[in-house]
Every structure is written in C-alpha cells, then in structure tokens.
Amino acid sequence: MLCYVFVNAINRKACNENGVTVPGLALTSAWAEACASSSASKIWVPAGTYQMTAVDVRGPCKAPIEIQIDGTIKAPANPGDVGSTRWFKISYVSSVTLSGSGVLDGQGAAAWKQNQCSKNFNCKLLGMNLVLSYVNNSIIKGITSKDSKHFHVNVLGCNNLTFDGFKVSAPGNSANTDGIHIGRSDVVNVLNTNIATGDDCISLGDGCTHVTIQNVQCGPGHGISIGSLGKYKEEEPVDRITVMGCTLKGTTNGIRIKTWPNEPGQITVTNVRFENITMENVQNPIIIDQEYCPWNQCTKQNPSKIRISDVIIKNIRGTSATKEGLSLMCSHGVPCQNVQISDVDLKFKGAPVISKCDNIKPSISKAPACTYA
Ligand SMILES: *[C@@H]1O[C@H](CO)[C@@H](O)[C@H](O)[C@H]1NC(C)=O
Ligand SMILES: *[C@@H]1O[C@H](CO)[C@@H](O)[C@H](O)[C@H]1NC(C)=O
Ligand SMILES: *[C@@H]1O[C@H](CO)[C@@H](O)[C@H](O)[C@H]1NC(C)=O
User: Fold this and answer.
1) Helix (H) or strand (E) holding 354
2) Is position 222 annotated as part of the catalytic site?
3) Rounded to an integer, what distance in angstroms lies between the CA atom of residue 129 and that of residue 104?
4) What is the CA(128)–ligand 2 centre distance, in A?
5) Of the bound ligands, which one is closest to the alpha carbon of residue 274?
6) What phi, psi does 207 have (nearest 5°)?
7) Mean pLDDT over residues 37-63, rounded?
8) What is the pLDDT of residues 331-351, one digit of tens each?
C-alpha cells in the first residue's frame, strides 16, 4: 500500500509503508503515482492547515484509491485565484474513497460578496469545493465542506456514489452555496449527513435516478429540492427519488419539486417518495411549484411541460413558519398524476396549516384538505 503525506502545494512529503515520511509529491503527483499503481493506494493529508490551489485529478486508475483528509485544506480566498468553476475536482475514475475528519475550506466570504447569482441567472460561477464528475463506485465519508465559494459539492454523471457522515457548513446568508447538487447520475446515496448552508441543502437536477437521501439534517438552507427542471430541451428524466428520515430546521423550504413554465424541457419526474420527515419552523414545508420563475426571468405564458407522477408524501410532521404548509401547484398543461398524501401533521402557531393544490389527477381526497385554487 502506498502512503503519501501531503504537506502543501509546494512542499510535500510521502511516507512509506511504515509511515516514515520521505520527500515526495503534492496531491496531484501523489494521485498520479497512486493511479498508476496496480494495488490499492492511500493518499493521506494529516492534521494541520494547508493552502491548496485548484486540483484536478482524473482516472482511469488501475486500483482503488483512498484519500484520507485529516487536516484543513484551504482554497485561495480570492475567487480569481481559483481560476475556474471548481477547486477540487475528481473525474473519470472508479473506486475512490474520500475519508477522514478533515475540512475542505473554500474561504468563500469574499466570493459571496461578488457573487451576483441570486440576481442574475447568467452569473459567473465561482470555485466549487468538490466536483465529482463521471465517478463510479465511490464513497465520501466523514469530511466537512466549509464555506464554499459556490456549490459545495457538484455530482455529475456518476454511478453508485455514497455520501455517509458527510458535513456541509456555511452561513445561512451565503449566496448560491448549495450543499450537494446531483445531476445525470444513477444510484447516489446521501446518508447521515448534516448540511447547514445558504442555498438548497440538496438539489437534484435532470437525469437523477435511484437517489436515496436518508437521515439528513438540513438548516439553515433552502431545503431538499428536485429541480429546477425544464429550462433546457435536452434534459433527461428523473426517476426513483427517495427522501426519508430527514429533519429540516428553520429552512425557507422543506421538500420541493420545482419546474419552469414557458420553457422547452418536457421530461417526466416519477416515483418520488418523501417519507418520515420532521419540519421545525420551515417556511414552506411541502411544495410542488410548476411555475418556478425566480427573479422574473421567465414568463408564465405557457405551462410547464414537465410531467410529475407517482409521488408519495407520507408522515411529514412538525411546525411551519407560515400558515400555508402544503402547496401543490401542478402544471395546467400536464397535471400531476397519482399524488398520495398521508399522515401530514404540520402546525403553524399551534393550528393545523392550510393547503393549496391545483391540477392534480385524481384529485387528493385525503387530509389535509386541499382547497383547489
Ligand atoms: C462508470 O460507469 C459507466 C456506466 O456503467 C461506464 O460507462 C463508465 O465507463 C464508468 N466509468 C469509469 C471511470 O469506470
Ligand atoms: C458500489 O460502490 C461500493 C463502494 O465502492 C462497492 O462496495 C459496491 O460493490 C458497489 N456496488 C455495485 C453494485 O457495484
Ligand atoms: C418510516 O417510519 C416507519 C416507522 O418508523 C417505518 O416503519 C418505515 O419503514 C419508514 N419508512 C421509510 C421509507 O423509511
């Protein structure tokens, strides 16, 4: 087993099988050597604080690689010094484990002030803490993503990826710091993960299939969201998404599906299950919004073409910060089909919340009663 101690981007040492450090290579070169090895490798970042410029490592590699991060790795504070939309990127590889008690610190405070993304759809994207693209059969466990400049984690084109005991931490007012964004991936599990951030805790883009989100704590943040969807013509369907045993605390939204009106996308979103979820003082606990149109960047002239079906909303309890606890506003072009709601018990100031539903077939008969808008 190879063993590398990464000291910093300039000075670095590697250790041998006995843990003895020898002069060596930085993370990038350690990866190159580990990747070429025909037996399993481990790259170790020991306790300590390190500065790291952007790193982009890729496979294919010959054998599994574990990167154990026990130290705090800091990104350049100046967004211009990260140089692109990702800070630490791993791609085109299988069997990688990211582990350890360490921290990826994006040092985002300066970037959040420059970031115009909450006002402008075509804003400049800043360095994301961790980008996993086309990564298979891999695990991220234990480490913390802190103060990312933009999304903390972006998952694209992955197969069989598990986050377990992962942590995301950033202030509630940090713009566009989605916790984990997942797109075009099959079999992604986010388990036992604590997310406090300034945007969606978890957001699922098009092409997500077999995604399980379990025992996730979210807050502050904007909740757990499917979408937004429909903006682009070439999107892929969303199928088999389960969110269970999660707690949302003081978030702006709880569980949400959002699609754009008047846009070309026409995929299906099907087999979605939200079950056993606790809300604590959540502003909009349960939402389907098929007229999602932030910052007035679209018109509502034509309905959304995204077809939502087979949605189970079951055992959702706790408190809402507004009196409207449930808002299921489906597209009048393609009504939602087969939405099942049971055991929703949400209170606003001690009284049951009110609900709003539209364009659901067949209409929902079970409690809480829906007043059709
Ligand atoms: C990941 O899995 C996909 C689908 O099975 C496959 O096409 C791709 O080559 C795999 N990538 C790697 C790096 O193993
Ligand atoms: C998924 O990835 C994990 C971790 O590498 C591995 O143990 C497991 O066998 C993989 N599952 C499949 C179906 O390949
Ligand atoms: C929800 O909780 C109930 C009661 O603890 C349990 O029986 C059920 O399996 C849970 N559902 C999911 C999807 O985890």
Assistant:
1) strand 354-358
2) yes
3) 7
4) 26
5) 3
6) 75, 15
7) 88
8) 999 999 999 999 999 999 999
Rounded distance, CA 353 to CA 118, Å? 29
Which amino acid, one-letter code, is at 93?
V
> Domain locations in the chain?
45-372
For the stretch 104-128, pLDDT in tens is 999 999 888 876 655 665 666 678 9
Q: Is the CB of 275 under 6 A from ligand 3?
A: yes
> Quick one: which of 67, 56, 245 has its CA closest to 140?
67
Under 8 Å between Cβ of 366 and 360: no
Minimum CA distance residue for ligand 3 atom 6: 276
Look up the pTM and report it.
0.93
CA separation for the pair 311, 371 (Å, rounded): 19
- The CA-based angle 101-248-282, given to 5 degrees, is 145
Kindly give the number of the ligand 3 atom that is closest to the alpha carbon of 273. 13
User: Can you give the pLDDT at residue 53?
Assistant: 80
Decide if domain 45-372 falls under CATH 3.40.50.410: no
